[in-house]
Amino acid sequence: MKPLFSWYGDDFTGSTDALEAVASSGIESVLFPEAPDAALLRKFAHCQAFGIAGESRSRGPAWMDARLPGIFESLRGLGAPVCQYKVCSTFDSSPEFGSIGRALEIGRRVFGNPWVPVAVAAPHLQRYVLFGNLFAVAAGTVYRIDRHPTMKRHPVTPMGEADLRIHLARQTELRIGLLDILALAEPDVEQRLAAVLAEGPAAVLFDGLREDSVATVGRLIWGQRTAEPMFCLGSSGLTHALVLHWRAAGMIPAEFTPPAIRPVEQVIVISGSCSPATEAQLRWAMANGYAGFRVGEEEPAERALAEGRSVAIYSALGPGDCAGPPRGEELGAHLGSLLLEWIRRSGVRRVVIAGGDTSSHAVRRLGVEALTFAGLLSPGAPLCRAHSKDPAVDGLELVLKGGQVGPEDFFERVRKGDR
C-alpha cells in the first residue's frame, strides 16, 4: 500500500488528534511512539498513514536539534507525499520550550522544501486564524489567543502574542508570508498564493475560519506537492484540510462510519493537567461516583479499583492548584509507572491520560509499540488501541486527552462509549 500521509506530533495528545483525523476518514493509520524499524513497519504494511508521537513540545532547541533531524529523515524515507509536523491548535510555544520556529527550520532543511505551508485554523476545535491572528473559544466565547483565559497564563508556554507571524519571529529568523481569509475566498486563489510565493518566503501561514476555507487550504497545499515529500506544519486543522481535499478528489471514501465503542464497567483516569476544562471534568466525575485522589494517595485509589469503582488520580484541580512538584517529565513518568501497575493488578482495559506532557511521558512507561484508532469520542481525543509485546498492555484502550479537550462528563463518555 502506497503511503499517503505521515506526521510527527509534538506531544502524544496532538499525535492522536492527527490519528483521529485520518483514521476516522477511512484511511488505515498507525501511530508509533518511536521511529519504527523495518520489522514493525511490516506489521502495519496495510496502512497508508504513519505517525510518530513525540515530546518536542516540552523540550528545548538543543533537544530538537539532536532528535528531530533523525526522526524527520525516518518519516521522509516513508515516501508519503506530505509530512506534517503536528502542533497544538493553540500554537503555544516559546524560544525555550517546544520552539515551533526551530522545528520549522529543521524540517525545511531535512526535506529540502523551498517553502513550508503553515496551517493552524481548526474550526472543528473552535480555533480560527484571521489575518494571521489566532482565536480560540473558551466557555462559549471567542478570544484572541493572547487574551484566552487559559492560554494567556499557560504554566510553561503562555501565549502573549496572537499574530502568529510575530510569535514565530521570536523563535526563528525565517520569513513567514500570509495567505489571508480574503484571498482564500477569491476565485483566483491559486494566483494569490503564487504572488505570495513570488516574494520568496520560507513559510506561508494560511488563514482559516470555516470548513470551506479549510478545504481550500487543503487543495492548495496538495496542489503544491512535488516528486519529493513535502514538509508542512500545523494543527489537526491542516490534517482535516487534506482529508477534505482527498475526499473531494475521490482519493478516499466520501463517507466512512467509524467503529462503535462498547461500554465498560471501569475506567482509570490519570491527570497531570492544570486546565480549567480538566478541572471541571474531574469535579464532575467525583460528583458522579468516581473515586478521586491526588497524586500520593495511591493506596486508597487502589482499594477503590479493587472495589470495582472508576478511579481518577490527579496532580491538580485547575490552574490555581498546579504550583507544587512533581511536574513535567517526572510527573508523567510517575503516573505512567503507576498506571502500568494498576493495569496489571486490576484488569481494567480502558484508561484516560489527561495533559499533553503527561501523556507523552506516561505512555512511554507502558511499553506501547503502536497505537491504532478504535473509535470517536470527542473531537481531538479519540479512543485508541495499544499494540505491545506486554500482554497486559496489548489491546489496552486508551484516550490521550489534551487539557482543554472534552465536555464536563467526558470521562463517563469514555466509559460508556458515548460521542
Provide a descriptive summary of the structure in words.
The protein is α/β, with parallel strands linked by helices. The protein has 2 domains: 5-248, 3-Layer(aba) Sandwich (Rossmann fold), CATH 3.40.50; 268-416, Molybdenum Cofactor Biosythetic Enzyme, Chain A. Helices cover 36% and strands 21% of the residues. The strands form 3 sheets. The protein has an 8-stranded parallel β-sheet with strand order 2-3-1-4-11-5-10-9, sandwiched between helices. A 7-stranded mixed β-sheet has the order 13-14-12-15-18-17-16, sandwiched between helices. Helix 8 (211-223) packs across helix 9 (236-248) and helix 12 packs across helix 13. The protein is globular. It starts with a strand and ends with a helix. The relative contact order is 0.15. The mean pLDDT is 92.
Brief characterization of the structure:
The protein is of the alpha/beta class. It has helices spanning 12-23, 38-43, 61-78, 100-111, 164-169, 181-184, 189-198, 211-223, 236-248, 276-287, 298-306, 328-346, 356-366, 410-416, and strands at residues 5-9, 29-32, 49-53, 82-86, 116-119, 127-130, 133-138, 141-144, 176-179, 203-206, 230-234, 268-271, 291-294, 311-314, 350-354, 370-378, 381-387, 397-401.
CATH architecture of the largest domain: 3-Layer(aba) Sandwich
The CATH topology of the largest domain comes to Rossmann fold
Distance between the termini: 31 Å
Mean pLDDT: 92
CATH class type of the largest domain: Alpha Beta
Percentage of residues in strands? 15-25%
Gross morphology is globular
Query: Could you say how many structural domains there are in total?
Result: 2
Helix/sheet category: alpha/beta
Q: Count of DSSP helices? A: 14
Which radius of gyration do the C-alpha atoms yield?
20 Å
- What's the CATH superfamily of the largest domain, by name? Putative sugar-binding, N-terminal domain
- The beta-strand count equals 18
Largest sheet: 8 strands, parallel
The percent range for helix content is 25-40%
Low-confidence stretches: none
